[in-house]
Design goal:
The chain contains three helices and ten strands. By secondary structure, it is of the alpha+beta class. Strands 7-4-9-8 form a four-stranded mixed beta sheet, with helices on both faces. Strands 1-2-3 form a three-stranded antiparallel beta sheet, with no helix packed on it. Helix 2 crosses helix 3. The longest helix is centred in the last third of the chain and has 16 residues. It starts with 8 loop residues before the first strand and ends in a 29-residue tail after the last helix.
């Protein structure tokens, strides 16, 4: 057996929960060392989609919302889901327009990720959106969103300070920061540098929901 061969043996499996978004399966298995055990897998029925919009002056957009599983408020890049059988780019265009009202004339793929591969098969595709035009947002009925336009350098600092913890957002922001530093992204005003350590991300305070 090669080092990349599957060392797990599935003895049986059963679905223990399912809704329109996810399914949870419990497997009876032999683990890589031959012992019996169980493994729970969360199957996601949609592809996770993320978009980092970046204008020519080096600004980007964050979405703030309360995340039910965390019981906490979260600042993130625009995100959503798309059918696994569909083109992820179509879902990205829809989500960006719905959440921020932005329409982009230039799209490129930043990253493909597996978000929690010890327990789920959820895959993410993250795009960089350029050549932006502002139109009207149309969020879903289940979403109560706060949208902020910020210099990218401030958003990068929010990752450094832990103000942004969403994995897709962290990965996308760090990737774009590297692209700015190596010159593969060009801005009209030149790359925006992160604020100095200890400075505040937004007007002297961390972002909070608007009342």
């Amino acid at each position: 057996m090669s080092e990349t061969s599957n060392p797990w043996t599935i003895l049986s499996q059963k679905t223990v929960y399912e809704n329109k978004w996810i399914g949870v399966t419990e497997f009876d298995v032999l683990n890589p060392r031959g012992g019996k055990g169980i493994y729970g897998k969360v199957h996601f029925k949609n592809t996770a989609i993320g978009i980092l919009p970046l204008d020519e002056e080096g600004n980007t957009w964050l979405v703030g919302q309360w995340r039910f599983p965390l019981d906490a408020y979260s600042w993130e890049i625009p995100e959503g889901g798309g059918e696994t059988s569909a083109d992820p780019l179509d879902a990205a265009k829809r989500e960006l327009k719905e959440e921020t009202g932005l329409v982009a004339g230039n799209w490129s793929t930043l990253l493909e990720m597996h978000l929690s591969n010890s327990v789920s098969d959820e895959k993410a595709v993250i795009f960089l959106a350029r050549d932006l035009q502002q139109q009207e947002a149309a969020p879903e009925d289940t979403e109560l969103l706060v949208i902020r336009k910020l210099p990218f350098g401030e958003v990068f600092q929010m990752v450094e300070t832990g103000a942004i913890t969403d994995s897709m957002s962290v990965a996308a922001i760090l990737r774009v920061q590297l692209m700015l530093l190596n010159g593969s992204i060009q801005l009209t005003e030149g790359p925006t540098s992160p604020p100095t350590p200890g400075s505040s991300p937004i007007s002297g305070s961390s972002p909070t929901p608007e009342s």
